[in-house]
Amino acid sequence: MSYTDVWILGEQEDGKVKLVSYELLKRGRALADKRGVKLVAIMLGKQINTEGLQELIHRGADRVIVVESPSLEHFLPEPYVNTFLCLIQRYQPEILIASATTTGRTVMPALAVKCNTGLTADCTDLDIENGTGCLIQTRPAIGGNILATIKTPTCRPEMATVRPHSNKPLPADTTHTGEIIYESIDPNLLKSRVKRLGFKANIEEGGSIQDAEIIIAGGKGFKKSDNFQMIHELAGIFGAAVGASRDAVDLGWATYPHQVGLSGKTVSPKLYIAIAISGSVQHLAGIKTAENIIAINSDPDAQIFQVANYGIAADLFEILPVLIGKLKALKQQKSL
Amino acid sequence: MNIIVPIKQVPETSNVKMDAVTGTMVREGVESIINPLDLYAIEAAIQIRDTQGGMSTVLSMGPPKAELAIKEAIAMGCDTGILLSNKAFAGADTWATSYVISQAIRKLGNFDLILCGERATDGDTGQVGPGIAAWLDIPFATYISAIVEIRPESLIVERMVESGYETLEIALPCLLTVVKELNYPRLPTLRGNLRAKKMILEVWGPTEIDALTENLGLQGSPTRVVKISTPQVARNGEVVQPKDEHEIEIAVDGLINYLQSKEII
Prior knowledge:
In chain A, 28% of the residues lie in helices and 26% in strands. Chain A is built from eight helices and 18 strands. In chain A, helix 3 (77-91) packs across helix 4. The N and C termini of chain B lie far apart (56 Å). By secondary structure, chain B is α/β, with parallel strands linked by helices.
């Protein structure tokens, strides 16, 4: 049997198919069409919402393979790796892509070792090479200073994780058809030496910075913790998540889950507003794929302005009150 | 409890060059540091060793000068270290790197816990930690932000995910990759520096770790870097410098206009 088809590893939470799954389908569709093969979505969970599974087909999948078990309700490395491995051995996909989420970045490296194949992390671009049909994987590396193009010439499947929210899903096409297959797995493969005892959800406005459409981020130019409140106020107006530079986190103005950059989180929002953040290489690498970047910084030579679509070089304490005032007025106008 | 900490020496990321022919990093002339996230793994290893007893061993695969990274970890308080350095290891991707480190760990044997930084700031893959666990077939957990409790047969840990924190119980021996929230890494002490300076580190190559030659280095790596390019980072956006209240009004209006033109507000 030879290797064929493009697979995406979908994700679910509480049985609901997550957005990243649909994003992956758009990437996968383009690859499958170029290779002239099927696009397959793999979903693992306890009990997955069937409308969500149908939507996977409407958004590009030709086939959905589902494995359901109480052991797969939440992500745990061993049952997930074993299940994927079992399916890979059964079907032999040529290409396997997952989202570079905490789940994808955990399961894929272990899976790549078990499959004896290559894996490229956090890709921002995937394509098929003319002639060889090889997967061409492009990713930023070395603090975003370079773009590396990587191939897995001989081992199969070719594996990559893709930066979440770096593309939008295809629009739903209700005329697109496909099959949903429920597979079963040997219960011995579902055993886990890691047990999930509990979960504490982040309670924060606008939610996780990795899922946010808009992020308002602040740096050490805020001078003190109390001033950082302005970031929260602005975020409240936009319904945005709050981000912070490494300095701001180290000073205790925001907690680590809010840290943007290479030692924190990589983000791809529609809008990123960086206030009093100078823009270290590490920080810039974390926001490279943001659609729009706005910077406010008192230093006109700050690095952040190089990546900004619009910048104001002025003191934040002069700009923010005016900005907040105008946005509030605008919001009131709209709701009237 | 015997703890192994695989660390990586990384360049200060601000000024890195790539070899146009091999597509790998040019390490000459660049200042090197311990990968920042590895410091949290080192600190945790020292703390656990201090309360539980046992040995903390640092491993690093790299060029001969990666010895400095190991010595810095020893100066912080780790007990001993081994350098995995050999021409045959050069150019390894994450698959081949995790193979070499896992073979060295097999050779060391008798470990309870492996602690890794979640990712390195140069490669930024986060793949070597889970890869090592897969080679060794031991339980693992990533993005660990707290080690809550150490039990005889297991650990209670917290794992940072997108929407919150999971509490996990993980059977020993196991591997954890850790994030910054875990602790506050200490600085090397004077006494530690002296001890590290005097220590002669063992250097292991393929023979010492019983490695299969076909799994090593660039030749053994499933992936190939085929092209390196410098991304166009500049967006050439407009940057205004308002000087007075009136100009601030205009600047802020400009910002709002931009957002409206992109249909964000």
